[in-house]
Amino acid sequence: MKVLRNIEQEVEQFEIGDQIALHLESIGDFTATAQKVTDQGTLFFFDPCLNDHAMNEENSNRGGFAESDLCHWMNTELLDAFPDDIRKNLVPLEAGKLLTVPAVGEMFGGSDFFENDGNEQLPLMKSRKNRVCYDQNDDWCWYWLQNRRKGSSAAFARVVGGGALDLGASDAGELRPRFLLKNL
User: Fold this and answer.
1) Does pLDDT of 171 surpass 80?
2) DSSP string covering 117-140, please?
3) Tell me: the pLDDT tens digits for 50-82?
4) Cβ–Cβ contacts within 10 Å for residue 53, how many?
5) Three-state DSSP state, 143
């Protein structure tokens, strides 16, 4: 009988769909999947979400994601928890940040209701099952995206449990870290 089996192997180049294992000090063990390969590196999204965290302590989208409390926490405390061999090979993303959350364009190909980020929908995100995410307790969760709602001083985009686009701001939600790892 034929079966599909995941195997661990050394590679010289990442491909879309490759998974890597990450041990985050004092947080736990995670996997991340390669979403896009570029000249600068390979874009990874965490597979499970982590940590309930508000985008900003107050109900606002001031400064966008790059200036949010969540982005600050991700690029200080969360980044410090990354293994040294991964952290030293991270390539800066938007606004020079090493860790961000996905953008609406990457997940859905864009939306008239949120700031345009100029991204095309990633191949794996064309399938709803790849947008659905689980928390560390294996429950469906919703997670933040980096785009602000047009015409609103409070809302950011987020992906809800069923993989659809929604909005929120001050709620404590999960996050699906996104990072660019230098090519091998």
Assistant:
1) no
2) --PPPPGGGGSHHHH-EE-TTS-E
3) 978 888 888 788 889 999 999 999 999 999 999
4) 17
5) strand
Which of 143, 171, 158 shows the shortest CA–CA distance to 58? 171
Going by C-alpha positions, the residue among 136, 137, 133 that lies closest to residue 145 is: 133
Q: Report the amino acid identity of residue 86.
A: I
- Of residues 150, 143, 156, the one with CA closest to residue 53: 143
Q: How many other CB atoms are there within 10 angstroms of residue 67's CB atom?
A: 12
Residue among 176, 84, 85 nearest 132 (CA): 176
Of residues 107, 47, 98, the one with CA closest to residue 77: 98
What are the pLDDT digits (tens) for 133-150?
A: 998 888 889 999 999 999
Asked if the model's pLDDT at residue 102 lies above 80, the reply is yes
